[in-house]
Amino acid sequence: MNILLELFVVTFRVLWAFVLAAAKWLVRPKEKSVAGQVCLITGAGSGLGRLFALEFARRRALLVLWDINTQSNEETAGMVRHIYREMAEAAAAAPRVPGDGEKDVLLHCNLQVYTYTCDVGKRENVYLTAERVRKEVGEVSVLVNNAGVVSGHHLLECPDELIERTMMVNCHAHFWTTKAFLPKMLEVNHGHIVTVASSLGLFSTAGVEDYCASKFGAVGFHESLSHELKAAEKDGIKTTLVCPYLVDTGMFRGCRIRKEIEPFLPPLKPEYCVKQAMRAILTDQPMICTPRLMYMVTFMKSILPFEAVVCMYRFLGADKCMYPFIAQRKQATNNNEAKNGI
Fold it and tell me: pTM for the complete prediction?
């Protein structure tokens, strides 16, 4: 094709993409069904992972829960089973409507939840557990890479082992889980890979270098994977990148921005964050930043000189927002060491 003609076509497609994106703001896309599909969630024992599990359960997905903490993972499973029972009882009591496929899933499929104790920071553990899932449950259709950790130390005070741990869990684990379950998705051209990253994977702040690096890595991995699937013309495999602002799960307890700004940008409620993410996942939205202000912050960071960004950070109190959190973690560690006589 003549390069000028091709440039015209590309320009038209770019403009059309803007039109479609704007239309989605005005007309909410219909959510797809995940009823009966196998959904695997890492870090399902608490926080966002637990809430994702409950949301997928309400949509009749078959849940596979991974977490390093067996007890908390089983607690999540108990909540999921309770939702399954309630839905099954309601479906059994409701009048039969011909062609109600989702009700058929409840009446004729034995929706279950499967739990696995897995350290996603260890490659061998991921591959072995993935093989167990394939044998005991089946092929995974929806993969939610959610597990995450934070060290809570300034760079020069952070042990190398904790830096490596943060990178392994928050970034490298995405490689292992995706390599374990993507081949079947490619074979059938169907699936969905969700990367739960962070706004700190799009722009950074002081004091959490390892966390920011791991989330930047997760974002880069996700974007490259998305381009690879497009290049391979595997349009049946969807990807969604989730980048929330500070979420009130306790992971960053003590983090504070400027007190005058806090009322306008408070920590996100976990339930709100997950509901927004679920809407994006079920409408095949490629990326979701919560709140929407994060899109603007990311854009401004991309076009402004670095010193201008520093000025903005200082005005918002975002330059040292992690320092109170780090101080609390350090105090807790010292108290624990004193208590144990270390």
Answer: 0.90
Q: How far apart are CA 155 and CA 303, in angstroms?
A: 27
Q: What mean pLDDT is predicted for residues 109-135?
A: 93
Give CA separation, 236 vs 186, 207, 301, in Å.
9, 40, 33
Higher pLDDT, 315 or 54: 54
Q: Is 197 within 8 Å of 219 (Cβ atoms)?
A: yes
Q: Is 290 left (phi over 0), alpha (psi -120 to 50) or beta?
A: beta
**Do residues 196 and 207 lie in contact, with contact meaning Cβ atoms separated by under 8 Å?**
no
Catalytic residue among 84, 116, 211, 313: 211
Predicted local confidence at residue 107, as pLDDT: 46
Task: Answer yes or no: 127 catalytic.
Answer: no
Cβ 108 vs Cβ 88: under 8 Å: no
Q: What is the pLDDT of residue 316?
A: 87
SS3 category, 241: strand
Distance CA 101, CA 110 (A): 14
pLDDT at 100 over 60: no
Task: Return mean pLDDT, the chain.
Answer: 89
What pLDDT, in 10s, does the model give residues 246-295? Answer: 898 888 888 888 888 888 888 999 999 999 999 999 999 999 999 988 88
Cα–Cα distances (Å) from 106 to 63, 138, 143, in that order, read 14, 18, 22
Better-scored residue on pLDDT, 168 or 5: 168
Which contacts (CB < 8 Å, 24+ apart) does range 25-34 have? Answer: 28/283, 29/283, 29/284, 30/283, 31/279, 31/282, 31/283, 32/282, 32/283, 32/284, 33/59, 33/60, 33/101, 33/102, 34/59, 34/60, 34/61, 34/141, 34/142, 34/282
Check: CB of residue 182 under 8 Å from CB of residue 234. Answer: no
Q: In the 3-class helix/strand/coil scheme, how is 88-142 assigned residue by residue?
A: HHHHHHCCCCCCCHHHHHHHHCCCCEEEEECCCCCHHHHHHHHHHHHHHCCCCCE
pLDDT of residue 319: 87
